[in-house]
Amino acid sequence: ELRAEPTRPRRVPEATMGEDAARLAARLVCFGFDGYTPDAHAQEMIAKGCGAVIIFDRNIKSPTQVATLCADLKRLAAPRPLLVMIDQEGGRVRRFRPPQFSDIPAAAAIGACSNPVKAAGATGGVIASELRACHVDMTLAPVLDVNTNPNNAVIGDRSYGSDARVASACGAAFIDALQAGGVAGCAKHWPGHGDTEEDSHDALPASRHGMDRLESVEMAPFRAAISANVASALVAHLLVPAMESGAHRPASCSERCVTYLRKNLRFGDGVVMTDDMEMGALRGIPWPAREGEGGPFESGAVPRAATEGLRAGIDLFLACHTRRLQLDVIEALTIAIERDESAAAKARKARRRLDALCAAYVSAAPPGEFGTPGPTTSVDAVKGTATVAAAMGEPRGRL
Asked: Which terminus of the chain is more solvent-facing, meaning fewer CB atoms within 10 Å of its CB: N or C?
């Protein structure tokens, strides 16, 4: 593999005390960027104090290259930890792809095989091995939505199926194996995106079931995940009228929805994050004016959604693509922290939860020079693919 000689990025000193609110705000933001090496955009976000980074296909060429990228991102942030995450579900949502990485099937195929629980566990173990080899600390998986609506294109085969019991058992097995391998899991999309028809990437969908149905179907896999000590949960940009009466307030901005997860499902001080803040679901929300909120922002309603999420009890905000939106979210959170002691207290709690997750799962910056992968293990895609296939056995029929 031929690669250009890397340019050593400049580590920016920690900010002064006068910038504490801005650094606390940035700590709660996960950013994404373009490129195979830490570009100026990535260096800027790390210098501001962002606590996490998410990598996509646009950042990945090979196991050695992505291990080097993640090592360099961690070196830039050192001595503080940097949570590196990825969407590695399997099927159509996988950033590590064959033939260089293992062939991970969609969750629907796992749920339909002869031994879905064993296969889910095998999948979690293989994913953990490959992510750890590349200095990735978390995958935004498993998908715990129960796929009861055949018109739901955004979830579809990303779900283990239409049976909440299968989704619960498979999700728990995946989490057990993944986290035993040293990689943090993420239960998504709370409180259940399986019976919707709109795609939250484009619009604000709704789940209109009553609480009895939500408890027995949509929430059941999340209870199982919490019993399996899942490290984090991701909240959907989704209207849930049975839980939140606000006409335009999605679960990701709802204190009722977040509190229900923490208290009723006993998730406690687990890390709760949003889905990507750049999704279309948030862009058109007509938020009422709030005194001292700041703005207007170039990125419209999204920064306000972040401050509403902070007040709701969200710990980490995913801003996966655009520098301008990332800066606006950090600015909006900074203003809320400076002007609202309640929001500041929520931010400090969020930081403590993130610190605890980092202590459990985030690897330190690897030794070695910039542009090198550091000590790592090889990725055996052939073995990983065979392990999952053997655990799946023969299909047991359609879901």
From this structure: N
For the entire predicted model, the pTM comes to 0.92
Per-residue buried b or exposed e for 366-398, using 16+ beta carbons within 10 Å of the residue's own CB: beeebbbbbebeebbbeebbebbeebbeeeeee
CB neighbours of 8 closer than 8 A, spacing ≥ 6? 369, 370, 371
Report d(CA 26, CA 329) in Å as an integer.
9
Length of the chain: 399
Q: What is the DSSP letter of 4?
A: P
Among residues 103, 201, 355, 380, the one annotated as catalytic is 201
Output the tens digit of pLDDT for each of the chain's 399 residues: 323 333 444 443 443 333 599 999 999 999 999 999 999 999 999 999 999 999 999 999 999 999 999 999 999 999 999 999 999 999 999 999 999 999 999 999 999 999 999 999 999 999 999 999 999 999 999 999 999 998 888 899 999 999 999 999 999 999 999 999 999 999 999 999 999 877 777 788 999 999 999 999 999 999 999 999 999 999 999 999 999 998 899 999 999 999 999 999 999 999 999 999 999 889 888 888 777 677 778 888 899 999 999 999 999 999 999 999 999 999 999 999 999 999 999 999 999 999 999 999 999 999 999 999 988 888 999 999 999 999 999 655 443
CA distance 222 to 15: 39
Catalytic residue chosen out of the listed positions 72, 195, 275, 276: 275
Smallest CA-to-CA distance from 124 within 192, 185, 67, 60 is with 185
Contact 141, 159 (CB under 8 A): no
User: Do the strands 186-190 and 232-235 form a parallel or antiparallel pair, or are they unpaired?
Assistant: parallel
| Chain CA centroid to CA 26, Å | 16
Examine the residue annotation and report whether 275 is marked as an active-site residue of this protein. Answer: yes
The gap between the terminal CA atoms of the chain, to the nearest Å, is 42
